[in-house]
Amino acid sequence: xxxxxxxxxxxxxxxxxxxxxxxxxxxxxxxxxxxxxxxxxxxxxxxxxxxxxxxxxxxxxxxxxxxxxxxxxxxxxxxxxxxxxxxxxxxxxxxxxxxxxxxxxxxxxxxxxxxxxxxxxxxxxxxxxxxxxxxxxxxxxxxxxxxxxxxxxxxxxxxxxxxxxxxxxxxxxxxxxxxxxxxxxxxxxxxxxxxxxxxxxxxxxxxxxxxxxxxxxxxxxxxxxxxxxxxxxxxxxxxxxxxxxxxxxxxxxxxxxxxxx
Length: 261
Description:
Layout lengths: L9 H4 L25 E2 L2 E2 L3 H18 L7 H90 L10 H6 L28 H4 L1 H10 L2 H4 L20 H13 L1
Parallel strand pairs: 1-2
């Protein structure tokens, strides 16, 4: 009256089906014994091919039952003729099976070739992409070097054009300090100035900020208004009652004032 259900599927714990022992009565040939060569996993459970094989075996047994007896010469010739026809049919059937098997093998081979060709195409595309990336990187580096050399040559030409005659010019300090784009205010790194090397000069060094005693003295020097903030509650713009609610008349006056504005 009770049913149970395991945690696993039946197929995970199922073994090969049990085949019990059997006894064949004398004079009887059960048709089931013709399938004794089929075992579990090798023909069982029966598929379309096994069903066709069973049907052919039945047809062959029915054909064997129609063969004439060997008691007459004419029967022997007729029997030989029928056997020849059956043998031709069996050879034709076997040829069809071989052709089907060859077609299956050709289909598998075609799929394998197609897969190999796709893999090869993917590899070729990846190799071409890598080559294109390398050439692009080399091209960008070459363009960057050309631009750098061009800028260098332009600066040299501009500097040479300022002093075509090659005369020596004295330094004009007033002009340098009046021009905020000069090297006095914005020195160039290529001339040997590195602003990051002296960045510690801009750090504020004060005893009030670096020591605890200085912080306490700095806090004591501040007025009370800085450390102790006094906040006053804002006064309501409308007339309110003792409980803090706004009267209806005051609310109407406020709405009228807003509409008037």
